[in-house]
Design goal:
- It is a single chain.
- The chain is of the alpha+beta class and 101 residues long.
- It has one domain: Conserved Hypothetical Protein Mth637, Chain: A (2-Layer Sandwich).
- Helices cover 27% and strands 36% of the residues.
- Strands 1, 2, 3, 4, 5 and 6 form a 6-stranded mixed β-sheet that branches.
- The longest helix has 14 residues.
- The relative contact order is 0.25.
- The model has no long low-confidence stretch (mean pLDDT 95).
Amino acid sequence: MTLRIEQKADGVRIAVKAVPGSSRDRIAGAHGDELKVCVAAPPEKGKANVRICELIAEALGVPARDVDVVSGAASAHKVVHARGIDAASAAQRLAIATARQ
């Protein structure tokens, strides 16, 4: 998996390809250099963004309050910021989460 994960002082930024309105919630794996995240929530009033953050937080092992969409809130292509984790650990944990699907 060659994801775009950028190290920041307080955590990481992850490029995400969002697929709202899916049949089930899951982290589907790499889609180019983005993490493909499918959620059943509709793309209305930020519902899909909230669920995407919850799924990523669960996969990374950080509290959901530490994960936010920082770019592309209304787009399928987003950047998510996760605090309290480094890039190497994030890549490893996302690879494990993807393998479980």
